[in-house]
Structure formats: C-alpha cells, structure tokens
Specification:
single chain; 8 strands
C-alpha cells in the first residue's frame, strides 16, 4: 500500500512548542519496521496552479515568499521559514499522490490500475481556508486534492460521457474542518462530513454539508453510533466516486486537546467502519492522519499505526479484486 511522506522537511520550532512534530518520523519508523506491505515514498511538491484550486494566488505567494503578515502566521501557529513553506506544499502533494494512486491516475497524466486505497503520513490540514491558515494548517490538502482529482478525472474521460467525479470528505478529526467547509460551501460536487467536539476548537464553526457535534467525554459506543447515523445520511444524500478520509488520532482518551474518551479499540472500529463503507461501494479512498496531541506521543502514534493495519486489510481486498 503506497504511502507518501514529507517529514524530511522538519520545522525549526522553538523549545516548548506544543505541536508534536516528532510523531511523523516516529510513525514512518514504525511502519517501516512493522508493516512491510506499506510502501513509503517521498511526496512531490504541490504547484502554484494546484494550490490555486482552493487558495487565492496572493495567499499562496505570501506563504511561498515569506511576505505573509506575522499576525497571520501566529494564527497558523508556526513561525515562517523556507522549510515550513516547502513542507506545506509537500504535505498537499502527499495527499494528491495518495488520491491519484487510489484512483489510478499517474502524475504524468497516464491511466494506471487503481490501487483502491493509499495514504499521506501527515496531511489533513482542514483549518486552512482560501486566503488564510489556522490551527497548524497552512494549505488545505483535501480541498486542493478533491478539485484536482475532479479535473484529472474529466481529462481522463474527455471522450466518454462519464459523469463528473464527486468527492466525499469524511473528517473524523476531533476538531471541525472549518476551512474545508468554508472552501466547499456551495460546491455540490464535494460533500463535507465532519464529526467533532462541540465545545472544541474552532469555537466558530463553519457550516458543512453534515456536521455532527459531540459532547465532551463521548465514549466508544456513543461515537460509533453517531458515526453509523452519519454514514447512513451520507449514503442517502450523496454518491461519491472518491473518499478522502481524515483519520485524526485526537479523539483518543489520552489526547491533550481532544476532550473525548475513545479507546484504541474504539478508534480502530471507527477506521474499519469508514473503510468498509467505502469498500462495500467500491469507492477508492485516500486517507491522511490529521491531528494527534497525546499526553504520551506514543499513544498518538499507536492510533495511527492501527489505522494503517486496518487500511492494509482493505488494500489487500482491492488487490485481490484486480487480479
């Protein structure tokens, strides 16, 4: 199963910064050691044109050149540096590559056998909107990817009467995907589903297509029941040709910022349900890891490793189907 990374671009964060940058290298190391069927590869950088599918050119240029206002960088939560700007592009590039792999689109425009499922080892930067970032998110990888895959799908099917590609974004980070919702408002070809803590960041939510507010302390049983209802509603309202899944680790009971009470087993059941929903409908799925701020960083990484273990099972089903 192909997985793309950009963690070679390490942000020079000040001592005591609360963002757990080390989790990406820790996850990559564990995947390499424990799951040899995960094929790791570096991400290409997203281009200006690709980023402009979801972001204003002025914002893209400000991030790239370092001319962005310091107040805007404080809202993002990182200090600006060339490595920060490059990593932001590569993180989007990793989700683009995962979606292309799942769908069977080559970066050079070639049509390839669809792999069905692929991943970004980071990504899920759902707080970034068209002209600003926020909450450790610079560019919105899911919105850029959704629109780019729609364009590439149209190009691949230009001689056929194929319907346009519709994309479902299933965001199960504990924080609402406000940037994603805002960018996609009014776009009937992209369905945004977010399940998140009602009283958690961002405190001003944006209206998505389906928003599920969860109370503090929500446990496995209540969470999974809410997820089942959400997927049922998605089924009745939308028929996607691609799923982008944000598998946030921060609903875990040990997360410093999460305020929910999901166990490792509960989160694994969550991942299995989403991936099974896509598999039953034979919808290619690309996933990214999103947030995770465990009191013990090892707990965050374990949640993510478990997501990969589940994903590999569904990837294997796709490979068996293609034989």
């Amino acid at each position: 199963m192909r997985t793309f990374y950009a963690d070679q671009f390490v942000l020079p964060l000040p001592a005591g910064h609360r963002f757990p940058m080390a989790k990406y290298q820790m996850l990559r190391d564990r995947l390499a050691a424990e799951l040899p069927a995960v094929r790791l590869g570096p991400a290409l950088r997203a281009t200006d044109g690709e980023l402009a599918l979801a972001h204003s050119p002025a914002y893209v240029n400000a991030i790239s050149s370092g001319s962005i206002d310091p107040a805007a960088m404080r809202e993002i939560g990182f200090p600006w540096s060339p490595a920060m700007a490059e990593r932001a592009r590569r993180s989007v590039g990793a989700t683009i590559a995962a979606a292309r792999t799942a769908l069977g689109f080559g970066p050079d425009g070639a049509r390839l056998p669809p792999e069905g499922i692929a991943a970004n080892i980071a990504g899920g930067t759902h707080h970034a909107s068209a002209d600003k970032g926020g909450g450790f998110c610079v560019f919105n990888d899911f919105c850029v990817t959704a629109r780019l895959m729609q364009a590439e799908h149209a190009r691949h099917h230009a001689r056929q009467a194929a319907p346009a590609l519709r994309v479902a974004i299933i965001d199960l980070d504990v924080h609402q995907g406000n940037g994603t919702a805002r960018i996609c408002q009014g776009d009937a070809s992209i369905f945004t589903l977010s399940m998140h803590g009602a009283k958690n960041f961002p405190f001003r939510k944006e209206a998505g297509d389906l928003d599920i507010d969860l109370p503090d302390g929500c446990d496995d049983a209540d969470y999974l029941a809410a997820l089942e209802r959400a997927l049922d509603e998605l089924t009745h309202r939308f028929e996607p040709g691609l799923v982008l899944y944000l598998a946030g680790a921060d609903p875990h009971e040990g997360d410093r910022l999460g305020r929910l009470k999901l166990t490792h087993d509960g989160l694994e059941a969550r991942d299995r349900r989403v991936m099974d929903w896509a598999w039953q409908r034979r919808i290619p799925l690309a996933f990214a890891m999103g947030g995770g701020y465990g009191t013990r960083i090892e707990d965050t990484v374990q949640v993510q490793v478990n997501t990969y273990r589940v994903a590999l099972q569904y990837w294997q089903r796709w490979q068996n189907r293609m034989r």
